[in-house]
Design a protein that fits this description.
With 212 residues, the protein is an alpha+beta fold. 54% of the residues lie in helices and 13% in strands. The protein has one domain (2-201): Butyryl-CoA Dehydrogenase, subunit A, domain 3 (Up-down Bundle). The protein contains 5 helices and 5 strands; from the N terminus they run αββββααβαα. A 5-stranded antiparallel β-sheet has the order 4-3-2-1-5.
């Protein structure tokens, strides 16, 4: 049984990866740096930047070399002025967050089952298969959200905010922000956890149990 528990430690690593992926998915959703806009300013002032995120947008005015003013505006799920690409990404990330959480919880339950019960040599059922499927789906949804934002940046799409946001309508240049990197890492972590979960082989583990 000790040998069996040592091999099951691989699944603990999978749970750790899935948990980190879920945390990074939530973090990427809260960050505004999905798109970074650079605006042209008069020659006597410093350039300004705007950050466009999934749930909030910020504009950053550089006052001098060492200080800046940052103003953020939140928009909720029901705002009608949110463009389609951000709306789609919101759905993808929300679903990925829920699926990733369920997948991680099911992996914990599967691990409890592995440690609590002695596996049968003829039983080839992998208790982590559900966790593997859910983690793979979460990874795919996050990746789709990243690609959706990437294509929007590549196609130089703008965002028409309501006047009260005081956000610029035009920008000098646009690029992807750090939130895309955080989300990409979350997708990779979920994918790695799915590979670990699906690689679990009950028949092989059962053969490692000592005879009683």
């Amino acid at each position: 049984m000790v040998l069996f528990n040592k091999v099951a430690n691989h699944q603990i690593r999978g749970i750790a990866l899935a948990t980190m992926g879920w945390i990074m998915c939530i973090t990427s959703m809260s960050l505004p740096q999905w798109r970074v806009w650079y605006m042209e300013e008069p020659m006597l002032s410093y350039p300004s930047m705007a950050f466009i995120g999934m749930w909030r947008s910020c504009i950053c005015h550089h006052l001098d070399n060492s200080s800046h003013l940052r103003v953020c505006h939140r928009y909720n799920y029901h705002d009608t002025l949110i463009p389609l690409d951000i709306r789609v990404s919101q759905h993808l990330l929300l679903v990925a967050n829920i699926i990733g959480l369920i997948g991680t919880a099911s992996a914990v339950l599967a691990l409890q089952q592995v440690f609590a019960k002695k596996p049968r040599k003829n039983d080839n059922y992998n208790p982590f298969v559900l966790s593997a499927i859910l983690s793979a789906i979460a990874s795919s949804f996050i990746f789709l959200a990243v690609m959706c934002n990437y294509f929007s940046v590549s196609n130089k799409k703008g965002v028409a905010f309501i006047p009260s946001f005081q956000m610029p309508v035009f920008y000098y240049a646009q690029r992807g922000g750090s939130a895309m990197g955080v989300a990409s890492i979350a997708a990779i972590l979920f994918l790695l956890s799915a590979m670990i979960f699906i690689s679990y082989c009950p028949s092989l583990e059962g053969g490692m149990l000592p005879d009683v």
